[in-house]
């Protein structure tokens, strides 16, 4: 799974910008609503909801806002008739890079129009359902901070039936099947590791190397534009780019 952490590093760099424009607040609140709606609205009994709440608290979202989001998802928030649905969109960016977009929306037509405009203005094309999703497989990911003994991490990961892991500095990402994510997280924590984030991530089966500066700038601008849309929860792409070009293209 080499290279997937590079994409995660891009996401972390963008997180600073996202937080400034209130994007994180919207994303996490909607994630709580969906999690509460898809299972019981009790975090003790709903792993997805518990994970969303942890992310909300880490992002500094007040408890009253978290409770309001849970109530909306459970249908107990008076006067709120908003109906959000999860939709996955697919398309191609500059250099033929495959892009998956996960959205939560109360208006499919508006979301599709916004996405189509973002693609067309940045050298890409919004495609039909299924045009790129066959290149991706969804996995559960545990992000572990302050890893000092990689051998211990390997042993704990194997014990928890993880599939693989990647390390960068003192940060590790451990990959597993979605159904095993909670078990993996609990095992790593029991072994003394600092699990700071849990997520579901689309992992590409192949990658497109981007080497041209103009293409790199257009691609990263497209991704940034897509992530800036209110209805978009997550964007994943199958490109590879060296760090120097990436840094130059994000300025």
From TrEMBL:
Molecular function in Gene Ontology: DNA binding
Source organism, top-level taxon: Bacteria
Keywords attached to this entry: Cytoplasm, DNA-binding, Transcription, Transcription regulation
GO biological process: regulation of DNA-templated transcription
Localization per Swiss-Prot or TrEMBL: Cytoplasm
Location of the TACO1/YebC-like second and third domain: 84-239
Domain TACO1/YebC-like N-terminal stretches: 5-75
GO cellular component terms attached to this protein's record: cytosol
Keyword DNA damage appears in the UniProt entry: no
InterPro entries xrefs: Integrase-like_N, TACO1_YebC-like_2nd/3rd_dom, TACO1_YebC_N, Transcrip_reg_TACO1-like, Transcrip_reg_TACO1-like_dom3, YebC-like
NCBIfam families xrefs: PRK00110.1, PRK12378.1, YebC/PmpR family DNA-binding transcriptional regulator
Family: Belongs to the TACO1 family.
Name of the protein in question: Probable transcriptional regulatory protein PI95_011665
Organism whose genome encodes this protein: Hassallia byssoidea VB512170
């Amino acid at each position: 799974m080499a290279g997937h952490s590079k994409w995660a590093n891009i996401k972390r760099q963008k997180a600073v910008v996202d937080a400034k424009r209130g994007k994180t607040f919207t994303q996490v609140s909607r994630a709580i609503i969906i999690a509460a709606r898809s299972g019981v609205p009790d975090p003790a009994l709903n792993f997805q909801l518990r994970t969303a709440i942890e992310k909300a608290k880490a992002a500094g979202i007040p408890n009253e806002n978290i409770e309001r989001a849970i109530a909306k998802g459970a249908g107990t928030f008076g006067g709120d008739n908003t109906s959000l649905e999860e939709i996955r969109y697919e398309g191609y960016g500059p250099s033929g890079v495959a892009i998956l977009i996960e959205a939560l929306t109360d208006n499919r037509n508006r979301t599709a129009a916004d996405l189509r405009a973002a693609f067309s203005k940045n050298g890409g094309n919004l495609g039909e359902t299924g045009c790129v999703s066959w290149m991706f497989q969804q996995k559960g990911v545990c992000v572990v901070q302050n890893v000092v003994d990689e051998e211990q991490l390997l042993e704990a990961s194997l014990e928890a039936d993880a599939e693989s892991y990647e390390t960068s500095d003192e940060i590790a990402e451990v990959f597993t099947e979605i159904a095993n994510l909670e078990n993996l997280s609990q095992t790593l924590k029991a072994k003394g590791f600092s699990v700071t984030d849990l997520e579901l991530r689309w992992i590409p089966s192949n990658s497109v190397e981007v080497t041209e500066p103009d293409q790199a700038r257009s691609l990263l601008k497209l991704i940034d534009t897509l992530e800036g849309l209110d209805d978009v929860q997550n964007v994943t792409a199958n490109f590879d780019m060296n760090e120097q070009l990436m840094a130059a293209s994000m300025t």
